[in-house]
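Sequence in, structure out.
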Amino acid sequence: MLERWIIQHDTLTAGTLDYSYDGLLVAASLAIVIFASFTAFNVLDRIRAASTRNMRNAWLAIGALSLGGGIWTMHFVGMLAIRLEMQHGYDVPLTIFSAAIAIAASAFVLHMAAIAKKNTWNFLLLGGTVLGAGIGGMHYTGMTAMHMAGEIRYDPVLFALSIVVAIALSVLTLWMLDDYHVSGRKKRRYRATCAVLMGLSITTMHYGGMAATYFIPAAG
């Protein structure tokens, strides 16, 4: 089973496709996810202040769609940035499922952040793990959705490292979100810093995951 996913030495010698990136689209992918993260983190105040359960759930859905949708959009803008000498398309159900993974992980973490009175290690480790794994799950599900005349395989070390980095930066971001003690402009600066960290977490995972990726054309 793993042989279908993990790159082998004989596969490397058989030939893999080189690819490059459009720098403007790479920058756009980072800007999109930072803006989406900043929006979601500001929605946290609305979730915490909601007077009814329905209102709370509505704001939670908005925040999850913002953050999860930003994660998913970043991934596909990042994929558009790739210059790959092979025609490819996407499986629609799997692509939708990849977006659902990111939105579900975002909803879980925003819910935890909204009800937490302070950042305990249990909250940071659980929330960071769920969010980092959600980012990774979205990315690799999105990669599985690619259709092409060939195969995709991964370097196991870089594959694992991309997930670890996403989790570590997600934990750091959630730690920075402990902003009950600040208000006004200082709070906005906190949120902006968190959004940048979240953006770096997502884009580092994505492009680290792409560094682990080998595109292998089919024979002929």
